[in-house]
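protien #1 (seq + structre)
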Amino acid sequence: MQGDMEVGKLREELTKYGQEHLLAHWDSLSQEQRKELYAELSELNLQELTEDFSRTVEELKNAGQKVDDRMEPLDESQCGAVVKSWDGELRKYEQLSMAEISQGHVGILLLAGGQGTRLGTTYPKGMYNVGLPSGKTLFQLQAERILKLQRLAAEKTGKEGNITWYIMTSASTVGPTEAFFQNNEYFGLKKENIVVFQQGTLPCFTFEGKIILGEKHKLSRAPDGNGGLYRALKTQGVMQDMKKRGIKYIQLYCVDNILVKVGDPYFMGYCLTKGAECANKVVRKSAPTEAVGITCKVDGHYQVVEYSEITDSSSELRNSDGSLVYSAANICIHFFTLEFLERVVNIHERSLQHHVAKKKIPYVNEAGDIVKPTTPNGIKMEKFVFDVFRFAENFVVWECLRDEEFAPLKNAEGAKDCTPSYCRNAVLALHHQWLDNVGVEVVDSSGNELSLMASPASESNNNADSKEPVQQEVVVTEISPLLSYAGEGLEAYTQKRLVAPVYLTP
């Protein structure tokens, strides 16, 4: 139990930063509630929090300002692409990556803090099953891609190495995520090579800078954004773990992308060839009006610029070959060296910009009642994972193809795109293409060859000017990641006729 002296000191500290209202209901709290509130308030770094709020409010004044006159495209020498690389280059990239994987030098960072709220679920989005023939969840598909990549590296180098998978969860997803992996025996991966950790939270503020009480004995808190990763890497001991394991290179991605090539050897190999310390995998922007963040330089620093921050005239700028000048669309797949991450975590993390979301935040009023506002009454501060690009000295981008690598699960059925059926069909179309590439005919029950399935994730189907969802014939063709990571190893099926539905496993 806290004595009057300790509470008095805490009250003085709160008053110093204009937050004394947080103890307004102290006298009405039970001993257990007092203990809980005292512990939470004592852990706050009030100087840092109030400084962050003041800085964020100042930056909010500039929100919506266009950055056209301060931005420039990346140099062509910094921009690699799978479609511009010849087979020999791709083989070289793959060999470099496989060598590092086989030596245990590669870590994977997964951002998995979100729940499937927009999908109508309360469990972690990684546990979602989009309805593939296999019934595999996002977590299982990604785990099996890691497992296959390890096996490919061992086959190509003769040395077995492990990839360590670091999974960042949130307060709401950490428990279910850990239980899901345990119940599924880690999908064949070694338990010790899966490290689950938790991102932090930040108190919510009123527009006047007062921390909001969500209950009489609890602050109102919100996750600190995917950019909270960098603080969590330090506070949760992840950086220390990476160093202990000898990890040198890290690829990061978001859990909702069903097509993600986890640990992509082409991407990493390109980064290694260029000596990059930080990199962004991108897709080509499909139309000037597509509402995506663009990778470019602003005031000489690398940055992702949101669609709302540039004018139509800049969005529509084209090169001499007709391609968009600002076309490198961000898809939240990044590469870092350990040295770069260390520098960010130890030196730059405090200076990362906070972004503001104005929200309707329930609060406790003076009478001690919980009020649910009908209009925004406060702000949640969050950091973005890509805001560290500006600290990079050697930065590159790698352009991949949408229909091969990017189909995020975001919306419930009925939306235009990024629904469960959109993601499922993106996988089916890609796997049908893999079989077609090696001369396999997929036929119906009558023996008639089925036309190659169009992918809902293809660039032409993501034109921002298109209003209708893409309709196509669905050809049910799924290939287990344990059989093929990215279309390789299917030669045994060459010249065969397979009757749909097709599900191939080792």
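ok now protien #2
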Amino acid sequence: HSFMQRRSTDDDDGGGGGGSCMTVVGLMSGTSMDGIDVACVRTDGRRVFAAATKLPPSRTYAYPQSVTDRLRAVARVGGDVRAANVEPVQLEADLTDAHAVAVLRYLEESHMSATDVDLIGFHGHTIVHRPAQRYTWQMGDGQRLADKTGIAVCYNFRVNDVEHGGQGAPLVPIYHAALLAGSEVLCKTPVAILNIGGVANLTSIWLDSANIPQLVAFDTGPGNALIDDWAMKVTGKPCDYDGCLALQGTPNKEIVKHALANEYFSRKPPKSLDRGEFLGVLEEVHGLSATDGAATLTLLTAECVAAARDRLPAPPAKWFVTGGGRRNPALMRALAAVLAPATVGPVEELGWHGDSLEAEAFALLAVRTKLHLPITFPTTTGAPEPLCGGVFCASATRPTAH
């Protein structure tokens, strides 16, 4: 894979080599709609460097309630803004401004200024993702964000891939590979990174006979989305805190079995899912108790991962879990059971930061976009060839360094 090619300057901390290393802020607004993750990364687009001066920790900033309410309304009707009675131009402006506020607050709280940052990677918020129709929409105005922050922005990372027949997701695998580069964890036996957000996706990485990293990545199925929706419905809380409901319930295996009959699971990877694809399962658990419903949906997420494992060239010996799902003990227990004898643990075991991994990834993807390096690959999105993606926006309001 071209993204892993070493250059002779790769041995320094990125500070040399003609300034090839950039300080980048990555932004992620996930399908859970709870806010904006902000992270700072030093990268040249191929490797991730620990900066000489320590980078500030990542932070999450809540959306204004009016933005969250409108995003949830749109999600409830499968991304149809008109049906949700939401004005898209206004929502995009408000959503972008919330990201600008988050960046400026992050810089202030980190004792940084806009001139300390070379670039922003702005994912935006996915409203609709339908790769089969070659359509995906991540709401967010990159030029508006660049002008409000005084920092250049790369955004719209998925559209080019989808227009060329790729799945447009997942995009994070090359960041996993960059983090694992040179690590002793990476070997001939595959290692899996499982990201459990609203939708769950996995990256399986291994070294081939020439010691070149290979990877395959795809969406496994529902992640937290159905569990969260159920918890909101039966308890009024946005998620099953500490897996409390699921741990007290008994899963309905017939419902799980029926959901696993969905044609998605027999499709060959790479493949990707829309958050709303499995909303029908919520209808099926409708008659169950609060605890049994949570246990059923938790088992479904785990069984989807087991089904995904069976589609890999070889089963991973170690699974490292990131995203909000790793905080759910019921889900981690279910994963350990279905993936045995492989081991399952959080990505923190690798020294990574599970809450900010996606935001960090968009920082790397922004640099690759600016340098015209590919961001999607045949084995990650099913793209016909390695493809560049993303749109670069210079800032009209860039302050000059003093």
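Confidence is low (pLDDT under 50) at residues 5-19.
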